[in-house]
C-alpha cells in the first residue's frame, strides 16, 4: 500500500494514567508514562489516520497531526472516548485507575483522629465499554500488563472486553518507564511473539498491522 494506508480512517487512542482525586490536593494514580500510547498515536497519524488521543496527565508533547484531549480521571476519559465516536479503530493503551475515591471537598487534615477512611468505588472499564458499544469501532485493540500466565490472562481479557486484539506485556521484565518492552500480539488466531523491542517499534509494527487489517492483507 501507499505511504498513507489509513487515510480516511479515524483512530481513537487512550494513553497515560488517570488520577482520581482524594481531596483538592491529593490523588490515586499510577506510574504510566504515556510513552507507548503517544507513540501509537504518532504512528497511526503517520500512516494517514485522523487520530484523537485521549490523554491522562502526562508530560509528553502532542505528536504531529494528532488531536489531543487532556483528561484527569477515568470517568472523564470515558466521556471523552464516548464523545470521540464514531471511530474505525480504537487502541486503548491508558493505565486507567481501577478504583476512585469519593473526593473530599476540602483538604483532609491531620486532626489527631487518625487517618481518614478511603472508600473506593470501581471505575468503568473503558475498553470493555468500547468493545461492547453499539457504535463499536471495526477494530478494537487493548493492552494487558501481566506478571505471569501472560497468554492465558491476555486471551481471557480479549474475550471478556470484546477486543479484537490484545497487546500483552510481561511486566515482570521491568518495562515501566522504560523505552523497551517485550510483547505478544493476541488475536483470534492466537499469540504472536514480537520479541524484545523498543516501544517505538511496537507502535510502528502495530500501526502497520492495523493498516494491513483494513487493506485486507492477511
Ligand atoms: O483489566 P486491565 O486493566 O488489565 O486491562 C487493560 C486494558 O483495559 C488496557 O487496554 C486498558 O487501557 C483498558 N482499561 C480501560 N479501562 C479500565 C481498565 C482498563 O480501558 N478501567
UniProtKB/TrEMBL annotation:
Pathway assigned to this chain's UniProt record: Cofactor biosynthesis; coenzyme A biosynthesis; CoA from (R)-pantothenate: step 3/5; Cofactor biosynthesis; coenzyme A biosynthesis; CoA from (R)-pantothenate: step 2/5
GO molecular function term, any single one: phosphopantothenate--cysteine ligase activity
Catalytic activity: (R)-4'-phosphopantothenate + L-cysteine + CTP = N-[(R)-4-phosphopantothenoyl]-L-cysteine + CMP + diphosphate + H(+); N-[(R)-4-phosphopantothenoyl]-L-cysteine + H(+) = (R)-4'-phosphopantetheine + CO2
Manner of cofactor binding, per the entry note: Binds 1 FMN per subunit.
GO cellular component, one term: phosphopantothenoylcysteine decarboxylase complex
Keywords of the record: Decarboxylase, Flavoprotein, FMN, Ligase, Lyase, Magnesium, Metal-binding, Multifunctional enzyme
All residue ranges annotated as the DNA/pantothenate metabolism flavoprotein C-terminal domain in the record: 6-212
Lineage: superkingdom: Bacteria
Function: Catalyzes two sequential steps in the biosynthesis of coenzyme A. In the first step cysteine is conjugated to 4'-phosphopantothenate to form 4-phosphopantothenoylcysteine. In the second step the latter compound is decarboxylated to form 4'-phosphopantotheine. Catalyzes two steps in the biosynthesis of coenzyme A. In the first step cysteine is conjugated to 4'-phosphopantothenate to form 4-phosphopantothenoylcysteine, in the latter compound is decarboxylated to form 4'-phosphopantotheine.
UniProt protein name: Coenzyme A biosynthesis bifunctional protein CoaBC
Organism for this UniProt entry: Sandarakinorhabdus cyanobacteriorum
Lineage start: Bacteria, Pseudomonadati, Pseudomonadota, Alphaproteobacteria, Sphingomonadales
Gene behind this protein: coaBC
Amino acid at each position: 500500500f501507499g505511504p498513507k494506508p489509513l487515510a480516511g480512517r479515524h483512530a481513537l487512542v487512550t494513553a497515560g494514567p488517570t488520577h482520581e482525586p482524594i481531596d483538592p490536593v491529593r490523588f490515586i494514580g499510577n506510574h504510566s508514562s504515556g510513552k507507548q500510547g503517544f507513540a501509537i498515536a504518532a504512528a497511526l497519524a503517520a500512516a494517514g489516520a485522523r487520530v484523537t488521543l485521549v490523554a491522562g496527565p502526562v508530560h509528553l508533547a502532542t505528536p504531529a497531526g494528532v488531536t489531543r484531549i487532556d483528561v484527569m480521571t477515568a470517568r472523564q476519559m470515558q466521556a471523552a472516548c464516548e464523545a470521540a465516536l464514531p471511530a474505525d479503530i480504537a487502541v486503548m493503551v491508558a493505565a486507567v485507575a481501577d478504583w476512585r475515591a469519593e473526593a473530599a471537598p476540602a483538604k483532609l487534615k491531620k486532626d489527631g483522629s487518625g487517618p481518614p477512611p478511603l472508600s473506593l468505588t470501581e471505575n468503568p472499564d473503558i475498553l470493555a465499554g468500547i468493545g461492547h458499544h453499539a457504535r463499536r469501532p471495526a477494530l478494537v485493540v487493548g493492552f494487558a500488563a501481566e506478571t505471569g500466565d501472560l497468554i492465558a490472562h491476555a486471551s481471557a481479557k480479549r474475550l471478556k472486553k470484546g477486543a479484537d486484539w490484545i497487546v500483552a506485556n510481561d511486566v515482570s521484565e521491568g518495562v515501566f518507564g522504560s523505552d523497551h518492552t517485550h510483547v505478544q500480539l493476541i488475536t483470534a488466531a492466537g499469540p504472536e511473539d514480537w520479541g524484545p523491542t523498543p516501544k517505538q517499534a511496537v507502535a510502528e509494527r502495530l500501526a502497520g498491522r492495523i493498516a494491513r487489517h483494513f487493506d485486507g492483507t492477511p
